[in-house]
């Protein structure tokens, strides 16, 4: 980061009697350089999660084993291009996607893990991944066509434990067995593993459904339909405090069936405010 800022300053012509606008232009340039750096992108992802209040799904694997390709398949983002190089910068990027219920989540593409990390990269590596502990779910992608896939699994779990990831996150990790199209008649040994081919699109529906189930359980949210009176403030309240998915208006009696994703705490508040509401599911 500091190197980037130094380059910005050294290349910007500063005049003796510079106007305030020049100073602002310089500040914008410095900030732009910082945002384009790995650490800048890292904190920008955190800010995006905070202000958008999105659920974050961290995708992990040993380096160059299909994380970005899987995220591209889950989000439909054609601009995402995997980079086939070791530590394609200490970079973390976030990509919005939808679950089957239309709940928006952020898929976070972490840097690849190594079993023997070079000493001079340990501090940067740990700092870049420190916010994994604040994620809502971790998805571990394995290349099951690789001859050392079992060893690579141990590497990823070891790194996560060394990062002091909370136990509830470690226990809820979704393990994805990717690249099954390269293995003849593949059968997973792990009972709860999701079998996929990100390249061909196999298993993506099942993976999204499993992610949604874990997210709803882990965040204390549920999907339900509430019948409301449109003349009251209920609909406005639900748009503010929950995720409204569908509004089915019944014009004959000025009511609506509202399908929402709502947390336990928000539902408790709603029931206190609107005790006469009826719940269809």
From TrEMBL:
Entry's transmembrane regions: none
GO molecular function: GTP binding; ribosome binding
PROSITE patterns per the UniProt record, alphabetical: G_HFLX (PS51705)
A Gene Ontology cellular-component term: cytoplasm
Superkingdom field: Eukaryota
Domain Hflx-type G, first and last residues per copy: 66-219
The name this protein goes by in its record: Hflx-type G domain-containing protein
Source organism phylogeny: Eukaryota, Metazoa, Chordata, Craniata, Vertebrata
């Amino acid at each position: 980061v500091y190197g980037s800022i130094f380059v910005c300053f050294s290349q910007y012509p500063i005049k003796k009697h510079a106007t305030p606008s020049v100073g602002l232009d310089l500040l914008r340039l410095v900030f732009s350089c910082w945002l384009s750096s790995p650490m800048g992108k890292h904190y920008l992802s955190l800010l995006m999660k905070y202000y958008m209040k999105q659920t974050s799904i961290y995708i992990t694997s040993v380096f160059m084993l299909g994380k970005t390709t899987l995220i591209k398949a889950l989000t439909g983002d054609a601009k995402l291009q995997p980079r086939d190089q070791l530590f394609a910068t200490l970079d973390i990027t976030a990509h919005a996607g939808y679950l089957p219920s239309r709940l928006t989540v952020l898929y976070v593409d972490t840097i690849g893990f190594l079993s023997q990390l070079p000493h001079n990269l340990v501090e940067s590596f740990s700092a870049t991944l420190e916010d994994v502990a604040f994620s809502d779910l971790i998805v571990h992608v394995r290349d099951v066509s690789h001859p050392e896939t079992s060893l690579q699994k141990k590497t990823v779990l070891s790194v996560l434990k060394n990062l002091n990831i909370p136990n509830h996150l470690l226990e809820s990790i979704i393990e994805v067995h990717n690249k099954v199209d390269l293995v003849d008649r593949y059968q997973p040994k792990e009972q709860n593993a999701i079998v996929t081919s990100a390249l061909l699109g196999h298993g993506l529906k099942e993976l999204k459904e499993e992610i949604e189930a874990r997210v709803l359980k882990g965040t204390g949210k549920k999907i339900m339909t509430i019948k409301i009176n449109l003349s009251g403030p209920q609909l406005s309240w639900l748009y503010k405090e929950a995720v409204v998915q569908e509004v089915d208006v019944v014009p004959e009696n000025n009511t609506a069936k509202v399908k929402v994703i709502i947390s336990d705490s928000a539902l408790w508040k709603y029931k206190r405010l609107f005790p006469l509401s009826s719940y269809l599911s």
